[in-house]
Write a structure and sequence with these properties.
318 residues; alpha/beta; Arc Repressor Mutant, subunit A; D-Maltodextrin-Binding Protein, domain 2; 2 domains; nine-stranded mixed sheet; two-stranded antiparallel ribbon; 9 helices; 13 strands; globular
Length: 318
């Protein structure tokens, strides 16, 4: 008799390469993983795994089973998504994932305006730079910097671009001077923002990274990065939408800039849900209307504020 719960364990072992790592991923003990794998192999009467270069990998028979298990996973994901596709009412949660700078300030204010017309929809926002797995319902809608990716079941729209420039505090510039050429940056200090494996810094017209100052402060948090620039650590790349000038920051080398495209992405099945479709279309429309705000730092169409990082000063325009 099949124990269906053994198959995700087999899949986890293949994906992680070890019983211990699979147990950590599934939140079960390593001995339990080993016992369940032995039981699965005993049912088949053939080994599923072998060891190569210190990793557990499928045997030839294991690869045959793995193909079926992956199809089972895809079908299970489809069943989960089907609950949303059958909902034609504007009632229930909409799960949205977005990065800092969009999801923690702009999005909550905008979605409150969405709820004025859809009061029975619960807005569920997850702030994360990691790309959520939409096929597995980690989110209904994702605001991504990288586009929909290669997964055919995802659909997305590139709706706006964020503009960035180099900024520093007036106090820092008074002490260290103002750079007048990209080469001058080598005589200055830098605040660096790390997003995953990527370090954000401006590019020149050829797409090459401009000269990089000595790094004195590094963070993976947008607010910490902004406040480090404000505190005078050095020069940092700041979004124009942060209204840095209103907070006392000075833009240096204005010809140096960087733009990052923002996409709104959803699974093609979930867009059949009335509430997800309504939220998707609303977010796309709002981002397009605020395009100048994100790209150049113009006043937001929707929000009056002193700066992106001071939500206490924000006021929604009615």
């Amino acid at each position: 008799m099949n124990n269906w719960s053994d198959y995700p364990i087999f899949l986890a072992v293949v994906e992680t390469g070890s019983l211990t790592a699979a147990g950590e991923q599934l939140n079960i003990s390593q001995p339990t993983v080993g016992r369940r794998m032995k039981a699965l192999e005993a049912r088949f009467g053939a080994p599923l795994l072998t060891k190569e270069d210190g990793r557990l990998v499928p045997t030839e028979f294991g690869y045959l089973v793995l193909d079926h298990v992956r199809r089972m996973e895809a079908e299970a994901d489809a069943i989960t998504r089907s609950s949303a596709t059958l909902e034609h009412s504007l009632v229930g949660p909409v799960m949205i994932t977005a990065s800092e700078g969009v999801g923690d300030f702009w999005l909550p204010a905008i979605m409150q305006k969405f709820r004025e017309d859809n009061p029975d929809i619960v807005v569920d926002v997850n702030i994360d730079f990691r790309a959520a797995n939409l096929a597995q319902r980690e989110a209904d809608i994702a605001l991504r910097w990288t586009g929909p990716g290669t997964q055919n079941s995802l659909i997305g729209r590139r709706v706006t671009s964020f503009g960035f420039g180099l900024y520093a505090s007036q106090d820092y510039l008074d002490k260290r001077g103002t750079p007048t050429s990209p080469e001058d940056l080598l005589d200055h200090d830098a605040i660096r923002l790390n997003i995953g494996t990527q370090t954000l810094w401006p590019l020149d017209a050829s797409g090459n990274v401009v000269p990089t100052p000595r790094t004195v402060f590094r963070t993976n948090n947008l607010m910490a990065h902004f406040n480090a620039v404000l505190a005078g650590y050095g020069i940092g790349m700041v979004s124009h939408a942060a209204h840095a000038g209103e907070m006392g920051l000075v833009r240096v080398l204005p010809d140096i800039k960087r733009e990052e495209d923002l996409w709104v992405v959803a699974h093609e099945d979930l867009k059949k849900s009335a509430r997800v479709r309504a939220a998707f279309d609303f977010i796309v429309d709002a981002l397009q209307k605020d395009h100048a705000h994100f790209k150049t730092g113009a006043q937001s169409v929707f929000i009056e504020h002193a700066a992106l990082h001071t939500p206490a000063l924000a006021k929604i325009v009615r």
